[in-house]
Amino acid sequence: MFRTLRYDNMKSVVKKILRGYRRIETGRMIAFRSHWGYQSEYCNPAKGNEKGGVEGELGWFRRNCLVPVPEAKDLAALNEQLLAACVASRARTISGKGMTIGEASQYERALLSPQAEEGFPLEEVLYPLVVDGMGRVRVKGNWYSAPLPPGLRVTAVVGPLRVEIKHDNRLVADHPRWYGQGHQNLDLEHYLDVLERKPGAMAGSTPLQQWREAGRWPECMDRLWRQQEQRHGKSAGTREMITLVRVGTVEGWDRLIAAVEEAMRLGVTDAAAVLHILRMPDPEQRQRHASLLAEEMAQWERPMPVMDDYDLLLIETTGGIQ
Question: Which terminal residue of the chain has fewer beta carbons within 10 Å of its beta carbon, N or C?
Answer without folding.
Answer: C
